[in-house]
Amino acid sequence: MKSFILASGSVIRAEMLRNAGVPLETVVARVDEEAIKLAMLSEGAPARDIADALGEMKARRVATKYPEALVLGADQVLVCEGKMFDKPDSIDAAREQLQALRGKTHELLSAAVIIEDGAPIWRHIGRAQLMMRPFSDEFLENYLQAHAEDLFTTVGAYKLEVEGSQFFTRVQGDYFSVLGLPLLEILGFLRTRGICEE
Description:
Helix content is 36%, strand content 26%. It is α/β, with parallel strands linked by helices.
């Protein structure tokens, strides 16, 4: 059986897979995500293609060092009213982003690509639509102060699995994709390769 590598430093992605019983190693993929996004946006690429390309790029980068393994790369993008959002890099950026999303529906696209022998052999994009309630400024400030260390690790500046759930009135689509991986589809593929039990 081939080894399985997650090309990511994401704690939650690794945790989801391990909690599902998937034996894996993690290796952080070093890619210039910002340069890739800017180049693709300048060419008019849709958000789903950007997420897919970033996931593939991460998997390819790690696969060159581990050619005998199955390597999973993943990326997530957030789109609201045609605008793509990135992970905030400051409290002020997180505040502005959450204010921009307040009272609106946004979409999360979670792309996953598996590389074997240097080529993609499986890919999937999970989708979820999330409706934010018109929360108060006081709630927002309290959240920013209480969760300062978590704000910069997610594309939405919130974690649905903890207090970030209070921002929302409705979530439609795949819960695992909200967290960053289309987990059920990945597990289905891994069963076909003997990584997970049938």
